[in-house]
Design goal:
396 residues, elongated, zinc, alpha/beta, protease, single chain, 2 domains, Aminopeptidase
Length: 396
């Protein structure tokens, strides 16, 4: 919600007026100092939206303010003073409403278009978010990079490295939404103070690493050539792409990183395929290059890559993981019930490369259990199981 500042007001005053942490109001209004505001200056109030209220003879501004749990001055701020409905009169009152429900989409296959729609809604509601681009896909779809928080510790989470694992994006987006809701509503999640996490951590997320592949699985082949013809041929004419894991060029993005890549190259498909083909050389695909570049530029302290399925997670690589990774893995297992697996016969993945390159903790979390793509009927169970991992990744 945006308000028009009055002369002499400050961001500190608005944080008190709307009962919001000052740090969130400041971050929502980057570039505005803490001194007196200029009249007419536009100020963003995170976690609020604008509604209306029809006034009648029995209703006063004090009654409305009490219902909203806000000072009367908040009503004066969002209305033109000369047009405020008077007690005993009628008219329509503009009212600020605290957002208390999720705004992201749930219950449907999660496509790239839905992601774009939901990210716009999140940013509009919570403008202290930073929304950037980590790069683009083969089809020039943005790899959106979401950041929130002020802390020195940088924690990165990503989803949908594999196309038919799109449910990981939906799970991650719901966690982001719940985290933001808790921040602006003074709520804890499972007893964990979200504002303390905001102040101590910077949360980084790329919710959908393979947007072209996800759209292929969810919506079918693209209109662009030669990719429409290519995927149809690789899929052997099958109009259903539910088993497709790769990007739109038939390269498995989680077999693309230079971490013993040659092992995967020797034993996996030798040409483009719906799954497992590691490419002609490491980082041949723009999506993989973007994710590697992001880690190098942002200097993450740890990364979590969301995949499906198995109800387990992998946290080691060639004995190159740091000592602190074991304690984090133990906490992940405790809060989720997932099995902690140190080593697995797999190479060239994102967490493998991160551990090898930075000697910092990296984790691959296999959400849920069954056959990919996992059905949406599992969504709530997966979220309940893994919510603790999301939180622990920030507080550990």
């Amino acid at each position: 919600m945006d308000v028009i500042a009055r002369s002499g007001d400050t961001l500190h005053y608005y944080s008190q007026l709307f009962d919001l942490p000052l740090i969130l109001v400041q971050d929502a209004n980057r570039g505005i100092g803490d001194g007196p505001l200029l009249p007419g200056q536009l100020v963003k109030i995170p976690g609020f939206k604008v509604g209306t209220r029809t006034m009648n003879r029995e209703t006063s501004l004090n009654v409305v303010a009490e219902e909203l749990k806000l000072p009367v001055d908040a009503l004066f701020l969002v209305n033109q003073e000369e047009s405020l409905p008077l007690r005993g009169g009628g008219g329509t009152l503009v009212v600020p409403q605290r957002v208390q429900q999720r705004v992201v989409t749930v219950g449907v296959p999660y496509s790239y278009d839905i992601l774009c729609h939901d990210l716009r809604k999140l940013w509009k509601t919570y403008p202290f978010l930073t929304l950037e681009s980590a790069g683009t896909s083969v089809l020039k779809n943005e790899l959106f990079h979401v950041k929130s928080g002020r802390g020195e510790k940088k924690v990165h989470i990503n989803g949908s490295f594999h196309a038919n694992e799109w449910i990981t994006t939906a799970i991650l987006m719901v966690f982001l939404n719940d985290y933001l809701l808790a921040l602006t509503n003074h709520r804890a999640i499972r007893g964990v103070n979200m504002l303390a996490l905001y102040e101590s951590c910077l949360l980084s997320a790329v919710p959908m690493v393979d947007p072209d592949g996800v759209n292929l699985v969810v919506d079918g082949p693209p209109s662009e050539e030669p990719y429409r013809t290519l995927v149809t041929k690789l899929n052997k004419g099958n109009p259903t792409f539910k088993d497709w894991k790769a990007n739109i060029r038939g390269v498995d993005l989680n077999n693309q990183l230079p971490a013993r890549w040659e092992i995967e190259k020797a034993r996996k498909p030798q040409a483009a395929a719906p799954r497992d083909y590691p490419g002609d050389y490491p980082l041949s695909e723009p999506e993989a290059r973007a994710m590697a570049r992001l880690a190098e530029e942002e200097d993450f302290d740890r990364v979590i890559a969301l995949h499906t399925q198995g109800k387990e997670f992998y946290w080691g690589f060639e004995q190159e993981e740091p000592e602190e990774a074991e304690a984090i893995a133990q906490e992940f297992a405790r809060v989720s019930g997932y099995k902690a697996v140190r080593y697995v016969d797999s190479y060239a993945g994102y967490k493998d490369w991160f551990i090898q390159t930075f000697r910092r903790p990296g984790f691959t979390i296999e959400l849920g259990e069954g056959v990919n793509p996992l059905p949406l009927s599992q969504f709530q169970d997966i979220y309940d199981d893994t919510l603790g991992i999301f939180l622990a990744s920030l507080y550990m």
